[in-house]
Amino acid sequence: DNAIKPSAKHSAMRDALNTSAEDAIKSQHLLSIKIPDLGDYGGKDGIEIFRKSQNKADIAVYDDCVCPVGGMCPVEVLNIIKEERRCALCPIAIFGLDHISGLKAKARSLDFESKSKQRVLKNAIHRKVSSQTIENIDDRLMNDRLEISACVFIINTLEQHAKMDPAQGEYVCRDPDLLRNAFKISLDCEDEIQSFLSRLVDAKAYPQFTSGDFLAKVEIAARRFVHGGVQFGEESFSDIDVVAGHIAAIMRKNKLTFDELSKSEILPQLQGLSNGS
């Protein structure tokens, strides 16, 4: 399946990029976007940078985009996107047809993360933490939402390009036979079980978009499934469940007892606690 995973060594995306720039732009329908609401960017867009690139080896290929500057965000770009790897918001990032699946996985991951941040923000406001902390959480939450919207816009644009290109056929897929056993994944899936399974598919195909919080929920769900009481809904996992899942995973990985964990430096918040305290 390397042909449809852009970051793979001999992917179709890499092969296209290693040909002439114009052929790559045409075959992959490469595009860059600018989001005016994020601020003015007066530099060259990603396509222009790619066209003028003398060394294609400097180009970084990810599953959700191509970076024409090798993943090293210029200062003027960071001033706009605020954080590294906010690629869907980046004015020099390049997106092609084979990025559609990766962009969908990233959007689902960001949606999951934004829901977690909403809970964190609600708790922070309830606990009356500093206004700066609340502002930082709110800023990251807003960036998540902006990037989700950008991902959806890019996906829709690429899919429209694919539909208008007779060379692409009905599906954007290097091997149509794969579609026969494909698991349909939707960005706006409302069914809780299908949404959960979609994230599991993402976790296998695009582990870089899988958060620790989600893995903790998978672990909890697996334990509940074994005991016959699995529930997939968001409400079935409390903050305590998530924290407990993290601690349990750390203990298993490092083969620690509760007493040993309380004396280790892995979780400094637990230092001083013991089984008897």
Automatic annotation (TrEMBL):
It comes from the Bacteria. This is Uncharacterized protein. It comes from Alteromonas australica.
